[in-house]
Amino acid sequence: MSTGGNAIRGSRIGAGPMGEADRGYKAERVTITYYCSNGHDHTLSYAASVEAEEIPEESFCPSCGIPAGQDKANPPVLAKHEPYKTHLAYVKERRTEEEAQTLLDEAVAAVREKRIAAAAAAAAAAANA
Ligand SMILES: [Zn+2]
After folding, report:
1. How far, in Å, is the centroid of ligand 1 from the Cα of 50?
2. Class of the CATH-defined domain 28-83
3. In whole angstroms, what is the distance from residue 92 CA to residue 104 CA?
4. 13 — pLDDT class (breaks 50, 70, 90)
5. What is the model's pLDDT at position 82?
6. For residue 60, how far is its CA from the centre of ligand 1 (angstroms)?
7. What is the model's pLDDT at position 105?
8. Cα 129 to ligand 1 centre (Å)
9. What is the pLDDT of residue 15?
10. Tens digit of pLDDT for each residue in 104-123?
11. Which of 42, 51, 73, 84 has the highest Cβ tally under 10 A?
């Protein structure tokens, strides 16, 4: 029955969903620790096949949500100076008031046109009936 044993052993080598293969891959991972300026740290693991430049320099602290970097002595301090910005604040940063007004006017005009067209269509349908 030694051939049977070999057959079974052979099927287990590199067999994906059998559990053991997963443990084997763990050795081929790189673990990066990120530190935030509030003293938290967390680790992320990446497949060893991932290029070094694909590993992000910074992550976000899962405890407090601020950016976390790989240098414990020098965590990103962005959050200390800059409070959270709302989405609107970012939008305002990218667009001037004037541009925003133009966009708004265009949007309103488009809606108005649609409504007028719909009303006209409805009137025409009513006239034809
Ligand atoms: Zn934190």
Report:
1. 26
2. mainly beta
3. 13
4. low
5. 58
6. 8
7. 92
8. 68
9. 47
10. 899 999 999 999 999 999 99
11. 42
